[in-house]
Each structure stands twice: as C-alpha cells, then as structure tokens.
C-alpha cells in the first residue's frame, strides 16, 4: 500500500470509523456490517466498504467485520497502535484546555511538553507540566525526538513558531491559529479554526 496514493479525504474518515468501532466494542459488540457502521457515522455502506478496501480485505461476505480485528487494523494504518509524544506551544486559554483534555491518552497521543514565551507563565504548572520557555523549544523538542506539535499561539506569531518547530524536526503540526502556515512539503499541517467551521455551518442555516 502506497500511503501517498490514498486520497486524504479517505484518511480523514478512518478516525471517524475508529471512534464508532471503539464505541461498539465498549458496548460489548464483536461484529458489525458496513450498513450498521454507516448508520453510526452517517456515511453510506458502499463508501465504507470502498474506503476500507483501499487497505486490504478486512471483512467477509455475509458476516461483515470483526470489530476487534478492524479496530486493530485501523489503529495500525493510522499508526495510533502506539503512543505519540506531542509538544504544545502556547499556554493561553486554548493551550490550557488542550493540556487538560483527557481524550488524547486513550487515542494514541500524550502531551509531554508545554512551551510559552510569557515570563509570567514560564514555570507555572498545567496538569503537572511546568510551562517551559519557548526559547529552549528547538533544542528540547529535537533532543526528545518529538514529531508532533500543537500550535495555539496568536496568529502574528504562528509562522515564526512553525519555522522553529520544523527546525526542531517536527513533521506534523495541528494549528489552532487562524492563519495558514508555510512549511516544507514533508511537514503535514492540519488547521483547526473554530470560527471558520462556524462560518461554514451558518451557510446552511
């Protein structure tokens, strides 16, 4: 399987399937069909079969999918069958909320470092982490071998922080700043701007 050839829109649906399957497993279910999974996630059975078949044949005609098996396979495909260390840059309101969020740990991620450039915040604790000076960020991230970062700094500072993250060896950035980032092609950026998503929804209201 060449991951470069799988459309990004399909990769984006896999975590949705993973979450629904986990919920089914938590409710004691062992098997599901593409029809049943589709009802859980609001995606057609045909689309689910097509998406999953991009990675191999994981179901059986007539019996559907084994939930534990498909869970393991999707975790393997998304590389969340392990724990990823994450650096968080920006200890404002959003940064505090993310550092306290308990939903990362059971889905393959753990925040291990928090950085900020505010002298008032450096040394303060969030969830047991001492906020570190962003001046030491490049060395600290590089020496820890961290490949994932979350960026929650104000828009005017986002690009310069992203440049430092790339310098530190980060390969994927989850960007909460309402600005597009210029990064090398080998660095993956996912933008999360709640206002943009709200604007997208109000079109339909």
Structure description:
24% of the residues are buried. Helix content is 41%, strand content 19%. The protein is elongated and about 60 Å long. It has helices spanning 8-26, 34-41, 45-53, 67-77, 93-100, 137-144, 155-167, 194-202; strands at 31-32, 59-60, 64-66, 84-89, 109-116, 125-126, 129-130, 132-133, 148-151, 172-175, 188-191. It has two domains: 3-77, Arc Repressor Mutant, subunit A (Orthogonal Bundle), CATH 1.10.10.10; 84-198, Rossmann fold (3-Layer(aba) Sandwich).
Number of domains: 2
Sequence of secondary-structure elements: HEHHEEHEHEEEEHEHEEH
Number of helices: 8
CATH superfamily of the largest domain: NAD(P)-binding Rossmann-like Domain
- What CATH calls the topology of the largest domain is Rossmann fold
As a percent range, the share of strand residues is 15-25%
Task: Give helix % range.
Answer: 40-55%
Mean pLDDT: 92
Topology of helices and strands:
Blueprint: H1 8-26, E1 31-32, H2 34-41, H3 45-53, E2 59-60, E3 64-66, H4 67-77, E4 84-89, H5 93-100, E5 109-116, E6 125-126, E7 129-130, E8 132-133, H6 137-144, E9 148-151, H7 155-167, E10 172-175, E11 188-191, H8 194-202
Helix pairs in contact: 1-4, 2-3
List keywords for this structure.
205 residues, alpha/beta, Arc Repressor Mutant, subunit A, Rossmann fold, 3-stranded antiparallel sheet
């Amino acid at each position: 399987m060449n991951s470069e050839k799988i459309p990004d829109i399909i990769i984006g649906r896999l975590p949705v399937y993973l979450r629904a399957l986990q919920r089914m497993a938590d409710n004691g279910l062992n098997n599901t069909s593409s029809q049943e999974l589709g009802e859980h996630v609001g995606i057609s059975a045909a689309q689910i079969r097509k998406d999953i078949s991009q990675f191999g044949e994981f179901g059986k005609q007539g019996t559907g999918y084994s939930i534990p098996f498909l869970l393991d396979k999707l975790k393997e495909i998304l590389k969340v069958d392990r724990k990823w260390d994450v650096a968080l840059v920006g200890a404002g309101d959003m940064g505090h909320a993310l550092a306290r969020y308990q939903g990362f740990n059971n889905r393959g991620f753990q925040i291990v470092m928090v950085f900020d450039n505010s002298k008032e915040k450096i040394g303060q604790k969030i969830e047991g982490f001492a906020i570190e000076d962003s001046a030491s960020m490049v060395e600290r991230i590089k020496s820890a071998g961290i490949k994932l970062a979350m960026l929650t700094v104000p828009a005017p500072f986002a690009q310069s922080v992203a440049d430092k993250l790339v310098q530190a060896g980060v390969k994927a950035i989850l960007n909460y700043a309402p600005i597009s980032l210029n990064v090398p092609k080998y660095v993956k950026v996912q933008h999360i701007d709640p206002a943009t998503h709200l604007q997208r929804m109000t079109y339909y209201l």
